[in-house]
Amino acid sequence: SADNLWAENAHAPQLTPETMLWFRKNYLPTSDLWTNWDASPVFAPREFLAKVPKTYISVSEIDVLRNEGLLYGKLLQEQGVEVETKVFERAPHTGFLMDKLVPAGALLFSDAVQAVAKAFNS
Predict the structure, then answer these.
(1) H or E stretch including 114?
(2) Tens digits of residue pLDDT in 69-79
(3) How does DSSP classify residue 122?
């Protein structure tokens, strides 16, 4: 929430806590759904997390969701899942889509492509 995981990047461009709350209100209209693990994997039962395959997580440094991504990776590791996590410095939430404008965006994009290729042994 804005009070904990989102606070550090509350003023990040493109995606703010207010925008996240708008999405939550529209996609998860009742508070009982807010901690549903279908809404965020950080709420998944630990026995489910233990069954997740080797995982690649990339997060942008200037992103309100960065800490949720890092927490997800930590929870997976605590369950014995092999996790590769990369933080792309100076990249906003939309950095992946800005690969022609933001240097970190190009790196984020190519790194994700390499991770998928590695996962499929190609």
Answers:
(1) helix 103-119
(2) 999 999 999 99
(3) -
Region for 80 from its dihedrals, namely left if φ exceeds 0, alpha if ψ lies in -120 to 50, beta otherwise: left
Judge whether 39 and 26 are in contact, CB under 8 Å.
no
Handedness of CA 114, 116, 120, 122 (dihedral sign): negative
The model scores a pTM over 0.85: yes
Contacts of 121 (CB under 8 A, 6+ apart): none
- For 94, which DSSP code? G
- For the record, the structure tokens of 19 come out as 């925008």
Give the phi and the psi of residue 36 in degrees, each rounded to 5: -75, 135
Range name among 9-23, 55-69, 93-107 with the lowest pLDDT average: 93-107
